[in-house]
Amino acid sequence: MDRIAVAIGLGSNLGHRTAHLQFARTRLAEGLAGMRVSSIHETDPVGVSTPQPRFLNQAVVGETTRSPHEILDWLLALERARGRRRPFPGAPRTLDLDLLLAGSQVMHGPDLTLPHARFRERRFVLEPLAEIAPEMVDPVSGKTVRELLAALVAQGSAVSGL
Question: Are 107 and 114 in contact (CB under 8 A)?
Fold first, then answer.
């Protein structure tokens, strides 16, 4: 099976945030070839209905032979391993892992949308991703991550929550 390039967004705003991200990076490195990791960005929560602690956000890219649904299952298992609960939409989280891009795949399903439905509007996703994969292409818009970030910055857009 061919390898595909994937981009994954990491976030945490509960508990030992850096430990949660380190856990995710270690486990992701076990299944992604040639993994590259961005720096950590601390951001205010946005698009949430309750006051919450600040987020630590990061991005990783690498290659895998897993299908997008297999990747999603893997990411959800990693979140559960760190105590992720989903009591309500936008709830604080120990670990949030989002599959942002999977090669040139475009999917719209009840459990998985690729590319991630809102990644183009989120500076806290695009900034770390642009550090490590500025030339990665969004298969829907045809724009690179660098171009998406530049357009978002030019709009002066506030980010919305994951």
Answer: yes
Task: Answer yes or no: is 41 within a domain.
Answer: yes
Out of 17, 66, 98, 138, the active site residue is 98
In a domain, 160, yes or no: no
Q: Is 84 a catalytic residue?
A: yes
How many angstroms separate the Cα of 12 from the Cα of each of 38, 75, 104, 111, 136?
15, 14, 27, 21, 24
Catalytic, out of 17, 66, 82, 84: 84
Spot the catalytic one: 66, 96, 122, 138.
96
CATH code for the domain in which residue 17 is found: 3.30.70.560
Q: What is the pLDDT of residues 101-133, one digit of tens each?
A: 999 999 999 999 999 989 999 999 999 999 999
Question: pTM of the full predicted structure?
Answer: 0.92
For residue 162, tell me if it sits in a domain. Answer: no
Is it the case that residue 45 has pLDDT exceeding 50? yes
Q: Is 93 an active-site residue?
A: yes
